[in-house]
């Protein structure tokens, strides 16, 4: 068990480190999303045969960044109203959309559930279906995704991922049985970071539930994380000793401790105080700047697994309250 190594909770609650926000941050994301909007979203929801009795499953896809089709599962409760609220879920690092029966929780609570593949991921543990159209020359990177294209914000991997996340919200809204006014974004770890990006960049998000989010306060993560993807960044910086300033200049466009201030939907965060992958101070850096009304559930004795099913119960209760008119 990892020992408590980050700041005490009393300091975390007030933790607002200085962050390097680019002067052209809003213009950067406006241009990225406008570029994507030139392409037809073209959402597809093809019936997918399963033996599942309580849900209907659709093999979904939509046009993401660069015109590439992004895969998803849409899981609908068989007993549902004419228009259902929808939980759009983004996935953890290296995980893909897997199989529909891996994702039955939110439909059991009565929600439509769109499970969004992360481009290029899913080669480990849970398989994915979406490739990544990488730029022709993304530059040297450490195996993994955190440093892919790190020397150029226009080529950086998470530019494509965040655009996909915004497009996923639009795809959910386009389904005739989904209530476009009740779209919820959620995910854990990498999915939690993508959740914050979607809440900041996608119009009309009704609620956000980032769980032990990654991709927040990159420098702090690189400085103190003892496990997980932030170590990829440390490895890259150790090899490219004289290019650290360039790398962090790119990462500041994707830092959800910065982007979270642009979100306005109600949010329920979670954090684990013994998390060696997404240290609590990185989570609080985003939570304390969050632009909408926010709550946070603190799991004092847990590592990166966080609250797991206990957190899901917290989310379900909070979401029922939040989406009630």
TrEMBL record:
Broadest EC class assigned to this enzyme: hydrolase
GO molecular function (one): cephalosporin-C deacetylase activity
One Pfam family this sequence matches: AXE1
Domain of life: Bacteria
Transmembrane segments: none
Residues at the active site: 189, 275, 304
EC number: 3.1.1.41
Residues annotated for substrate binding in this entry: 93
Keywords assigned: Hydrolase
Stretches assigned to the Acetyl xylan esterase domain: 4-321
Descriptive protein name: Cephalosporin-C deacetylase
Originating species: Amycolatopsis endophytica
């Amino acid at each position: 068990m990892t020992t408590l190594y980050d700041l005490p909770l009393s300091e975390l609650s007030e933790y607002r480190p200085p962050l390097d926000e680019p002067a052209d941050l809003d213009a950067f994301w406006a241009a990225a999303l406008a570029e994507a909007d030139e392409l037809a979203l073209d959402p597809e929801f093809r019936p997918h045969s399963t033996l599942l009795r309580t849900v209907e499953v659709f093999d979904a896809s939509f046009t993401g960044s660069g015109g590439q089709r992004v895969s998803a599962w849409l899981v609908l409760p068989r007993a549902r109203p004419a228009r259902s609220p929808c939980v759009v879920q983004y996935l953890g690092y290296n995980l893909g959309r897997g199989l529909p029966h891996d994702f039955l929780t939110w439909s059991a609570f009565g929600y439509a559930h769109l499970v969004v593949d992360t481009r290029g991921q899913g080669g480990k543990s849970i398989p994915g279906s979406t490739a990544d159209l990488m730029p022709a020359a993304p530059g040297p990177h450490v195996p993994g995704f955190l440093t892919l294209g790190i020397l150029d914000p226009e080529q950086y991997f998470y530019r494509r991922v965040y655009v996909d996340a915004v497009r996923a919200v639009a795809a959910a809204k386009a389904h005739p049985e989904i209530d476009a006014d009740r779209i919820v974004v959620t995910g854990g770890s990498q999915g939690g970071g993508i959740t914050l990006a979607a809440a900041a960049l996608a119009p009309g998000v009704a609620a956000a539930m980032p769980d032990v989010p990654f991709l927040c306060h990159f420098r702090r993560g690189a400085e103190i994380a003892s496990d997980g993807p932030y170590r990829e960044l440390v490895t890259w910086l150790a090899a490219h000793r004289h290019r650290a300033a360039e790398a962090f200049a790119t990462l500041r466009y994707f830092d959800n401790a910065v982007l979270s201030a642009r979100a306005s939907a109600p949010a329920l965060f979670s954090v684990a105080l013994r998390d060696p992958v997404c240290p609590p101070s990185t989570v609080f850096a985003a939570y304390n700047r969050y632009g909408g009304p926010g709550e946070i559930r603190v799991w004092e004795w847990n590592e990166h697994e966080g609250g797991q099913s206990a957190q899901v119960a917290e989310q379900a209760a909070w979401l029922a309250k939040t989406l009630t008119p």
